[in-house]
Amino acid sequence: MATSIYALILAGGSGERFWPLSRRNRPKQLLRLVSERTLLEETIARLDGLVPSERILILTNSEQEKSVRELLKRFPKENIIAEPAKRDTAAAVALGSGWVAARDHAATMLVLPADHVIPDREAFQQTMKTAAAAAQETGALVTIGIKPTWACPGFGYIEQGNAVPLRDGGEIAVHRVIRFREKPNTDLAESFLRKGNFRWNAGMFVWSVPTVLSEFNRHAPELADFISQVRSPKNLEKLLRDRFASLPRISFDYAIMEKADRVLVVEASFDWDDVGSWQAVARYFKKDAHGNAANQPFTALDSSENIIFNDGDTTIALLGVRNLIVVRTGDAILICHRHEAERIKNLVAKLPPELQ
Which residue among 224, 246, 267 closes a domain? Predict the structure, then answer.
């Protein structure tokens, strides 16, 4: 490919949905939920052969920085940066864009969440190569769309328009984006599926550095000014301490993507899962004849449709229960109805600070 490819991995977030396994300093991307590697390690490994580690920036926050550095001891230390305050994704992408621009002002840049499950690395890389080719050839912002498998009200949607032919497009479809749609109610989500031209917004983006800098200049001048400071060879840590907390708290979708004139969507050729809950993770566990899903052996009698996660060697036994989530760690046990899983974050707020 003509230009160098860099990657920004967004590895912040809170540790609420997977409590008690997750904590503030150990959120979802630092958990081994579906394999022997954490989701962050899987995300980095997925780039092997496409983006070398010296061109990958991992953006975390001050609460999780120590855990990330301990996990990634062989990763370039200077390529792990902690945000000193929570400012949403527009500020994060601005920081990453400035970091890349300081190294290669003509580079192509990927933005990837750290906490998704994508089993097929080859298909993932092929999709990203197509998106990079589209970004270089058209000068557009490119997003990755996931073909919906059900009418999920928890995702944002992308309405796609006409196909855009590329010189090196290959077999993967590229379309114009008509508009982004916020998380819909179930009825609206079902109408999106019936229309057939809606895709899930997975929060993965590709663009050339000149394109994204131009869009920041047009639509978010305060963030553009911050990018110009990141690009200059000053002390980055001091700049983050002095400026980052005062940046606008706004999502990148709202600040830039929804306002940009040229936006394309590349349909993912890979299976994708954002594993947003214990129910989602349970799809990767072994199931018994009664629908009980567990990451380790357990004992059950007259029990069905339960989810069990055991982070240790204590025996878990179930008797006469249905539809429970049971999670055991070294210092806490969660027992909740599986249909109440969305409220785990409300429960976490009531816990002593040392357990949050």
Answer: 267
Domain boundaries, position 310: 278-355
- pTM here is 0.93
What CA–CA distance (Å, rounded) separates 294 from 272? Answer: 21
Q: Among residues 315, 276, 338, which one has the least CA distance to residue 33?
A: 276
136, 283: one domain: no
- Contacts of residue 44, Cβ cutoff 8 Å, sequence gap at least 6: 9, 53, 56, 58, 72, 75
3-state secondary structure of 268: coil
If asked whether residues 263 and 287 sit together in one domain, one would say: no
What's the rounded Cα separation, in Å, for the pair 281 and 275? Answer: 6
pLDDT top residue among 182 and 43: 43
339 and 254 part of one domain: no
Side-chain-facing half-sphere of 22: CA atoms under 13 Å: 27
C-beta atoms surrounding 330 within 10 Å = 8
For 144-203, what is each residue's pLDDT tens digit?
999 999 999 889 999 999 999 888 766 788 999 999 998 999 999 999 999 999 999 999
Kindly state the tokens that stand for 199.
Answer: 């895709």
**162 with 301: CB under 8 angstroms?**
no
Q: In this model, does residue 228 exceed pLDDT 70?
A: yes
Please check whether residue 273 lies inside any domain of the structure: no
- Same domain? 57 vs 85: yes
The tokens for 275 are 């594993």
Domain boundary among 267, 291, 317: 267
pLDDT of residue 91: 97
Average confidence score pLDDT of the chain: 94
Domain annotation covers residue 242 = yes
Confidence of residue 288 (pLDDT cuts 50, 70, 90): very high
What's the pLDDT at 169?
62
Is 90 exceeded by the pLDDT of residue 263?
yes
Same-domain check for residues 65 and 177 = yes
Q: Are residues 306 and 249 in the same domain?
A: no
The two structure tokens encoding residue 248: 């606008």
- How far, in Å, are 66, 73, 171, 294, 297 from residue 77 at the CA level? 11, 8, 38, 36, 39
Strands 293-294 and 286-287: antiparallel
